[in-house]
């Protein structure tokens, strides 16, 4: 360390001499490169001030003593920055550790999501789910039963980051502990609500939407718990309809009753489930309108469900300069 | 507004030339010596990024103006363009980039912090364009 | 900002003048206080260098131009520290946000632990569980059934921090989804293993110990899954015995068989369950021995179970200067 | 070793006196000017902590020595003692204390970073003792 500083003093003296001789931009560029070396060696800024003083004393022996003494003061003031600099180093170590922990946790969280899309003859399903930061508070799930029904769940924990992720894992286990026989959407939400109500911190709320697609008669039954409405595209009319399902958010009421809705789905129709991270996309000072989302969906709806989802995400993410303010989940269920 | 001047960057001389152009223009516009150094550092980081990762590109500088309550506010706009490999994950670089961590784009968060406005556009294997502006106060 | 800097320049000039006049420690103390003001105003260190130069120019008009010019170079080198300083500020903001997220998550996690100790006539139970950092990878739980059995579970996720906490929540839901009727220790571990095996990331392992205390015949049945052995204190012999239970850690094997052990517990005896954070307590360069833990337990065993646990924790934490290297959980079950 | 000298801290003059004593002793021991400033800053932070939160206390300074491969290594040991309210959660202060965050004990992580050895002992309403040593290299 002492040696390193001595060595740096020699280098710095050369840089100062060359610069004072030629006063060129090259000298200043060298100074900037030198600054990087100092940071690499974790030299504190007060050390730099001391080196500067020593170099001045050597180069200009005639400089008034008071000018040299003034560096004592500069060094003293620089100590504050020296402390901030040291703090920065330890903060960075802690941050790297924390970030790598969160990377592992985010990885674990990914394993909670379904690995494959259920295969059926009549449905083309696509999904994209991107956390605003590393851990997500959005959740989705598929259930395929022997009766030919495909269940699709989407949930959004109000809140983001680590607490939301912890809560999201609970939804997963709540879904896992459901009775074996398939449940109708309203009954399923009532069941999940019971688990949430018992286990979740009072400050956490969860919105959810669950739909069950009957691949035999093509009826789609769905219920919602305070969740962002989806869309239903009607091919015959070439129109998008809102897919609303009223119901209280999970975890608030002990015995809520959820209403069940149903739609007949025709060939070419498709259902869109989304989280509010899709619709509450902020561009500059304004929020994007639901109609604009529809415009994007329309732009890509000739593609497969997965490509449609991917492209809509890409457009919206690029509008927001790749800084998502909320977790983003979009599910497309096309009858083919 | 039309006074864009560009410096080609393909070696360290180009970096120094871009710095020199930035320092002169910012001085001309009326920036103080600390801001001159900040603008120059931002240019230097962008130019080095081009030199190290895209091999060649250019730094263009422009005097810009925008209306404020009383008259116009002047500023300097830096545009750094290259046709290099592009930055695969901008989000990653802008969030996790540390001053001393090295690697492609590592200096970008620093540039953002030194300047007032900052925008980046990068396409894989098509190159990167960074635009950064600092306004006179 | 410009104004703030101008104002600071005047203050700094006064400090420099007074200091050069008297060369006293008071002047340097003022400089240090001034440094705090700069940091409060988030003034970058390069700004300070520029102010110093301006003050020198004013105070010593005769100073050689080259000395003044040398500050251009110092300022340029200081830019690197200026960048580090700005980075520090944004890192701090990010870290504060992350920490407050983790605080909320840690709070949520606390709600996963049992709120009350089961009440019985013959047992005095005490517990202390302290995370190494904010979130814990240790878990404990009580189950009291109608047949007069009290079940006590302790589990330790291998790993710490956020990922371990996420995993810990799963153990909680696994326990919640157990069949209603009470299970024997071995069967319980086999059940929990099934959930863990299905849901947990391959890199995560969980050790667990479960014991069931029959308050009618005072038999204690227990099984273990790779967990740190506990202790059994025998009042009649005034001796501590190891409470070992062999078995594979959870999540590794699909169908493990756990062995069940049993002990008859007499009045005055007590059982100690612990996580390896208790025994792997590092003091300076060495790890503490299990015998030393016993010494501490003995020192406080005349107290109630809760006081005993609290005091052993206090002693061990103080030995480690309050820096726990692992989550710490200690449960005392005394027959009274 | 026996040359412990103490300075009472009950006002800002006490802080300055403690700094002065620390600077002199560290100079005498042979520390360079940057290390002198670091040791003085550590003393200053500890003394200010006493003055602000415990109202009064003392800073004691000692020349210390420890054997190394070839002979002895000299160092300076600072002991800051008060009978103030104590620090309720040392873990909290040492982990979360930021240089500029203010509040009781906020300067302690900084002191730890400036010195080589650091220990703290605090009991609620009995006071705090901080011991910090820096070794000559
Ligand atoms: Mn959410
Ligand atoms: Mn949301
Ligand atoms: Mn653990
Ligand atoms: Mn452990």
Describe the structure.
The complex is a heterotetramer, with two copies of chain A (336 residues) and two copies of chain B (137 residues). With 336 residues, chain A is an alpha+beta fold. Chain A has two domains: 2-105, Methyltransferase, Methionine Synthase (B12-binding Domains), Chain A, domain 1, CATH 1.10.1240; 114-335, PPM-type phosphatase domain (Phosphatase 2c, domain 1). Helix content of chain A is 47%, strand content 21%. Chain A has nine helices and twelve strands. In chain A, the strands form three sheets. Chain A has a five-stranded antiparallel β-sheet. A five-stranded antiparallel β-sheet of chain A has the order 2-3-4-5-8. In chain A, β2 and β3 (149-157) form a beta hairpin. Chain B has one domain (3-135): Heat Shock Protein 90. Chain B is globular and about 45 Å long. In chain B, α1 runs antiparallel to α2 and α2 runs antiparallel to α4 (108-114). In chain B, a hairpin with a 4-residue loop joins β2 (57-67) and β3. With 137 residues, chain B is of the alpha+beta class. Chains in contact: A-B, A-C, A-D, B-C, C-D. At the A-C interface, α1, α2, α3, α4 and α5 of A face α1, α2, α3, α4 and α5 of C. Bound molecules: manganese (II) ion (4 copies). Residues 137, 156-160, 164, 327 of chain C line the site of one manganese (II) ion.
